[in-house]
Amino acid sequence: MPTTSTGDTTTAAAVGAARPRTYEVRTHGCQMNVHDSERLAGLLEIAGYVDLADLPADQRPEVADIVVFNTCAVRENASNKLYGNLGQLRPAKQQNPEMQIAVGGCLAQHDRDSIVARAPWVDVVFGTHNIGSLPALLDRARHNRRAEVEILESLQTFPSMLPTRRESAYAAWVSISVGCNNTCTFCIVPSLRGKETDRRPGDILAEIRALVAEGAVEVTLLGQNVNTYGVEFGDRLAFGKLLRACGEIDGLERVRFASPHPAAFTPDVIDAMAETPNVMPSLHMPLQSGSDRILKAMRRSYRSQRFLRILDQVRERIPEAAITTDLIIGFPGETETDFQATLDVVAAARFSSAFTFQYSVRPGTPAATMPDQVPKAVVQERFDRLIALQEQVSWDGNRALEGRPVEVLVAPAEGRKDEATRRMSGRARDNRLVHFAVPPSEPDRQRPRPGDLVTVEVTYGAPHHLVADSPAQAGLYAVRRTRGGDAWAALQAGTGPAKPPVSLGMPQVGAPGAGGSGPAAAPGDARGVVAPCLGAGADAGAAAAGASGTDHRGRTGT
Fold first, then answer.
1. Where are the alpha helices (DSSP H) in 400-436?
2. pLDDT tens column, 233-266
3. What order do you get walking across the sheet with 22-27 strand by strand?
4. Correct CATH for 9-150 of 3.40.190.10, 3.40.50.720, 3.40.50.12160, 3.30.70.20
5. Nearest-CA neighbor of 194 among 220, 219, 159?
6. CB distance 159 to 178 below 8 Å
7. Rounded to an integer, what distance in angstroms lies between the CA atom of residue 127 and that of residue 172?
8. Where are the beta strands (DSSP E) in 184-342?
9. Prediction pTM value
10. What is the CATH architecture assignment of 166-399?
11. What are the tens digits of pLDDT across the range 71-84?
């Protein structure tokens, strides 16, 4: 552990003694990382640390006592971002040697010892399989006065067993599996996250029920490939059954999931989506390329016509579904003909938005050594053309919604201009971003709260969002207060942090039936329902054509 200092450590120690030790978790990457960061925060709070953001401004140090980076390894710029941020922290470390810096996540799993070699002021490096070890590693590094690097090759404890500090009072992530059994040639994630490991259905449903009891009205089911859920206990229909079981949970308003893999997307999942009212009509289906030749080179086990047939089946059963995707431009060997095939599929698919990526070489992947790497200038030109097409497709889709009612789950901080426009914002059932007006005569105490549901009429379809000014025009405006809004309001009224308290990890409950073929459990039965990167789309820095700017929650692209 580095101890060199040119600053006044006595002053730093005195300040530290006068206040609790603080932490900050900085997250790079996809939803899985965001959820893992909630667990890291829970672990640190259980260990006695306080979130830097929770301190009053006049008591808040410039840099936390512990800074944790939860990293992504999908794209080269994720690596550059980490080392740039580490460099920015070096002066703070020199001034206060008692400060600790930890690096975890996919890039830590990949780079291992080289992180400390490149940034010797880092104190702890941990991987994707042992996030629960962070507090102990920090203590060990502090005691031994040297960097502690601990990378495990397999999962010891499913992350949902760990304490969690959720960011939202009314919405929650729920992991149903970790790891990936696919071998896409562009993706480093399977080698870092390992083979797919599935949670027991009873554990998942028990966690969701507990979250609903705490005020959550929306959950998002997470996995590298959610629709291969059940592979470990031999039930290829388990994911559809899990969706139906979520529909039996009282108080759960909205269920989302990310992301399925086209090759494993089966009609039973479409039926479950169509027949379960609280499963939302939104689907993120990563295409990656519209060229069958490139899909084969990527080892994507479907072809463009199969992909389009899935979309047709979804829209036949769920006409209002909004479908989004991930696309990679400039994969090695991509020709103009291949790129034109992608444009053709995008035009036919009518995606509501697309997370579009320029191919990035990742050492250790088969694609990194493929011949015919596409020149950067060519990739950029194709990228710009694809963005222009998707922008138009998205805008056409949004304009088609003008005059229609939408139900919006109100969210804080979704609209950057809400204060100036006197609007509020949230997500429609199909996950489109909606900015809506509030009647000018409505008292503040009656305004909808984050977590409440508001029904309004779309008055304008913009390229990246919907505007619903019907309330300001004496038009449609209906507010339904929810337990989620109550939970949010209770946190605002308290004297502590405006975040949910740390929840302890979920114990393992029940077991899958033999072969996963038994009937679904009753809603109150915790024994289980069984019978029932994030690959290329995981980097938050990609262009989100047709989305509301960059989606910093990331996307699980598989």
1. 418-421
2. 999 999 999 999 999 999 999 999 999 999 999 9
3. 50-51, 22-27, 66-71, 100-105, 124-126, 148-150
4. 3.40.50.12160
5. 159
6. yes
7. 23
8. 197-198, 218-222, 254-258, 282-284, 322-329
9. 0.85
10. Alpha-Beta Horseshoe (3.80)
11. 988 877 778 899 99
